[in-house]
Protein 1
Amino acid sequence: MLGSTTTARRRFTAGLGLAGAFVLLAPGARAQGTITSPRQQFGFNIGDDYKLPNYTQFEGYWRKLAKESNRMKLVEIGNTAEGRPQLMAIISSPANLARLDHYKAISRKLALVDGVGETEAHALAREGKAIVWIDGGLHATEVLGASQLIETVYQLVSKNDPETMRFLDDCIILAVHANPDGMELVSNWYMKDADTLKRNTNIPRLYQKYIGHDNNRDFYMSNQAETQNVNHVLYQDWFPQIVYNHHQTGPAGTVMFAPPFRDPFNYNLDALIPVELDLVAASMHSRFEAEGKPGVTMRSGSSYSTWWNGGLRTTVYFHNQIGLLTETIGNPTPQVIPFIPEQQLPRADLPYPIAPQVWHFRQSIEYSLTANRAVLDIASRERENLLFNFWRMGRNSIDRGSRDTWTASPSRIDAVKKKIDADGRVGATAMGAEGRPVTGAPVGDPINQFGRGADVKYYNDVLHAPALRDARGYILPSDQADFPTATKFINTLLHVGVTVHRATAPFTVRGKTYPAGSYVVKTAQAFRPHVLDMFEPQDHPNDFAYPGGPPKRPYDNAGYTLAFQMGVTFDRILDGFDGPFERITGLASPTPGSVAGA
Ligand SMILES: [Zn+2]
């Protein structure tokens, strides 16, 4: 085929410029043997009508592919609630797979920043590989997720076109089954009827042993085995820059909802998160339009936002990672895309409407492949920028936690507006002699041509009042009434990679003495957005359709501060502080008496 010839030539040409080219060439160029196709393995194609493989078959297939392919390494990331091994396929070029620990270390250094300066960050970004997570099967009745994952992995390990080879060179892909138990249950339930017309996914029990569908509301709590497995990969082991979480189903009259998301985004997130989301999303939508795949909507096309923390793809935002969610129609039992008149009008959030029609499962598999390849394409093209900005966000977080900062929230903006109104709107912001805004200037000044603005003293004294500063850290005293629960809370932070310290001796901060064993969570760390979000109240904006109109329902939880929900006693510390603190490795022990040297 033309594709493989081109690839071979490119590799050969690249190799000629290097001494020892043939040594370098050897691992990457070694041909693979035959790769078993899904049809050869299961007796049907992925996406055939009325067919679903279960997890036992899935596992057997991935174990076979890992033996056959030199582009895939299979890892068990832990066991599920029902004791099945949860599998992750690591897919990349053979040369990259030979140096996985090296690339993992680069991603970790950029994520955690720890002493990495800008020059080193640039060098690491140049050298590193884009780490991209793609999952499937979290919500098990959304059967498209696991099926598209099988087809995606098969194509990545078997195709030899230049684009696939570029993905493999630039990216390390973490393909993860998010809920093996659920796939076994739902697929067995679906396939049990010999009469294909009776097949359905309406199982009469939860598809995750304990929490069913809420397995996607556990990622800030890590209560379940599967959540702990996933969080360990995301926040302690691999630190992917992009995390793509597959769901089903699409809004009526469309095939898929894909990012970007509607407002609000959470004000604790780094500003690079929403704009890099746009970058990746643009790659997805442009590929759909270019491949002639209509019916993909975004933003106002559904209710999904980036506000809340706790879903697989949303907790990642608070760790400076780009989280993607798609919601796609598709079922092995053919379905119909209904005629919804409004969905026929092209607009910014649905540029390419789709005609009503009968829809087959394989078509949804093809849409999922397009989405996955679009994500890998932009990860490959923007590899160095994504890696460097990953470091930049962590660096920003550490800087913000090391000085006085203020977080604007809807209630604070409302409060300053009320204060301005109450004072009779006197004064405006004007340019002072040194180019700085001054107070008490007349109306109509040159820097507020589109409105006079308000006196800058309200910005300085009200919005940025000293008492409203962001916390530099939080102290959880070890003598509080329910210290074991405080310890459980601390462990939810440790599961998602937050740095926590424990006092080895009594210490005093701002005149208050805390006993040994107290926990300290400082905000000068890469994952500061997650720390703030777990200790501070969420201030969701009033989201009304129009003044006096009905509220728009938030996508999911609007308020969820875990420290409040668990009744943890803590002090917010607004100034820099230190003490006899040791970093906790692993999980915290609930026994305060166990502190050595206390
Ligand atoms: Zn779902």
Protein 2
Amino acid sequence: MMATTHVFAGLAVVAPIAYVVPEFAIALAAGAILGGLAPDLDLVFVHRRTFHFPVAGLGVAVPAVGVAVVAPSALTLAVAAFAVAAWLHAASDSIGGGPELDPWNERTERAVYDHVRGRWLRPRRWIRYDGAPEDAALGLALAGPALLAFDGPLPAVIVGGIGVSLLYAGCRRRLVAWTPDWLE
Ligand SMILES: [Zn+2]
């Protein structure tokens, strides 16, 4: 899935909470956005393994949410939003495709690494590849709740993210042809 889809998923989770406690909206949004993006920083290490915790991440997210419920503050809510969004990112990578650049020609069976069982999870390909039409549609649907719940500058950022998603999805299949061989 696209980075924007992961961010919108995190924002969709925190949107109802931000609606109820708007004084923590910025903390929730910051945690969700960073948590949605953070796992893919492992592109420079072993992508979808080093910073992706599809199973173990839940073991961090649940206590973080517990702390935020017991002692709500900007910090505890931001940490909880980060942990949930990062876990959701890693877990949802398993319903997408593999990390391959051109899923039309080449298929890998490694979606995301499960550190608990010590093995790769298989891509289920409900979303066939990042930037697929269904990826863009899912991103749009997930962006909806956040657009309603947040005010200030965030809706403009979300609309910008939707624009990037649509643009990327629109030229996703051509990107492969433009990519120099040494990058693949
Ligand atoms: Zn990922």
Protein 3
Amino acid sequence: MKMYDVIGIGLGPSNLSLAALLEESTGLQALFFEEKESFTWHPGLLLEETTLQVPFMADLVTMANPRSEYTFLNYLKETGKLYLFFSYNEFTIPRAEYNQYLTWAANKLGNIRYSSKAVNVELDEKGYIVTVFNAKTKTYIQYFAHHIVMGTGQVPNVPVHVNDEWRDRVFPALRYAFKREELLNLNHITVVGSGQSAAEIFFDLMEHQNSHSFTVEWITRSPALRELETTKFRLEMFTPAYVQYFEELSFEKRKEGLAYFYQLRNGINPETLDKIYRKLYHRSLSSNSIRASIRLHTELESIEHGFILNLKHLEEERSLSTRTDAVILATGLKPNIPHWFHENFSHLIEWESDQHYKVGRDYSLSFKEPNPHHFFILTGLDQSHGTASTNLKLSVFRNQLIINKLAGYELFKIESTTSFQSFSSAVQGDDSFQKDMEVVRDVSYY
Ligand SMILES: Cc1cc2nc3c(=O)[nH]c(=O)nc-3n(C[C@H](O)[C@H](O)[C@H](O)COP(=O)(O)OP(=O)(O)OC[C@H]3O[C@@H](n4cnc5c(N)ncnc54)[C@H](O)[C@@H]3O)c2cc1C
């Protein structure tokens, strides 16, 4: 019976980063399971000209080890694209290229098993028993590990009931690119949602209206199409300093903070909004109808056969109905928590509320009884670590803390100055900048 030091469940950017960092910097025996048959990152939303919302430095490893073999820059070098990127001269990379980069890195790593779904995880006194179903061989195999890292990501949040037989016409945004061709010959398409995906799909459909006659409508609960906040000071909310500050607040204060910073995470890229507005304006010059509309303040309450959309204007509190031929639900994502987690671990761990498990600073679950076998979790962290917790910018930081815990010492040193602003009344770090700030504060009392 082989005992791994750590088993990772799910292989998105979070656990892929962990796999790369572990392989290069530790002798720990690690194995990662991914249920898909090969690596892909959100293939249904790799639309033309869409970009990541984080700089390329938020790759799998740079923030821990810029000299790593797995940096985005090394990917460019190995694939002969370094000069093209040099002249491209932008920090945000195409989403499709991010997927290519991740696939390149995943193909270099030997400790990943695809078509392998973790269907059960249990804890005994020796560690974790992970039962994996292999979709190719149709077999169940058990693996053993001292520690677990659950990186199962997120699944679409579907706010209304959708009948099974509607699924070709009413589906989550994550399937958009696969279904688009089937939609283009319909008469009316509705996009529901308030964030970046809704905006991108709305724009993409508008582009396809040049050669098709459908009308597209965008329905959003938002009172305004909100821009993603990208001011430099706001970006400091996506730093270790802020996450560590947030994580120490009381549960109630964290809940309040989350509502406040919602927009930071869920706004729409200003360029996308500008492109949409520009297109609408140019269309308004021609005698043809615009064939694209946006309803604000409007919540989708239910869908009936046909498809009739029952809507509610949230401010006027008025109900209304419209007819459409297809609905794309860009209504967000929610943590993907496997059933076995609830069944096997709910009673063993501490909870902050009915729905929120208690997670330590190092992303390990808090067990009621002393347990030397850590269970790290990389999804559903908003309540514990804040709106930035699962942002790609911080996935390397999360993994540094996890690896330090696994190694038993500070293998990765976290930079002491990660923001100019101080969030806590306590002094953060011992660096000269923070010290100077304290001196200035003291002096100002006199
Ligand atoms: C289109 C899109 C663009 C985004 N762009 C950004 C961005 O620019 N910046 C940003 O910060 N965030 C972005 N996000 C949000 C978030 O960062 C990404 O969703 C990111 O992929 C999360 O990474 P992850 O590894 O935690 O989870 P995921 O990427 O969701 O990966 C989880 C993996 O686990 C696998 N899995 C699940 N259960 C099991 C199981 N039981 N056994 C085996 N495998 C399993 C799944 O198949 C999946 O491959 C974006 C999200 C979307 C949808």
